[in-house]
Amino acid sequence: MESITEGVQKMNMSESQKRNLIQVSNTKKPLFFYVNLAKRYMQQYNDVELSALGMAIATVVTVAEILKNNGFAVEKKIRTLTVDMRDEAEARPIPKAKMEILLGKTERFDELMAAEAEERGEAEE
């Protein structure tokens, strides 16, 4: 019973360390949903980790490039790996490509966010 409790505690610790994680899909949400969500995460946590599997990797790279090219983020770390996925409990594992991109705020991040908020305020009036 102790090993289960320890496992749950370790799982909870790793979840709390990954509060700034966004798992990107290429089918569920539009591209700019992830761009705006990443900006909000960077405001709150100073950096954001974008993660994607398989076909969603192109989406995660695009989100990261939009944030970098517009001056909001800098690349801190890029990690690629292969993970085994199973459709069913007894099925054979299927290897899937996975990419994780860690982005941090630029020095101009707060200035750019303020300018963006000001633009939205003028547009609403």
Automatic annotation (TrEMBL):
Pfam families recorded: Alba
GO molecular function, a single term: RNA binding
Domain of life: Eukaryota
GO cellular component labels: nucleus
Positions of the DNA/RNA-binding protein Alba-like domain: 20-81
SUPFAM superfamilies recorded: AlbA-like
Protein name (Swiss-Prot/TrEMBL): DNA/RNA-binding protein Alba-like protein
Source organism (scientific name): Actinidia chinensis var. chinensis
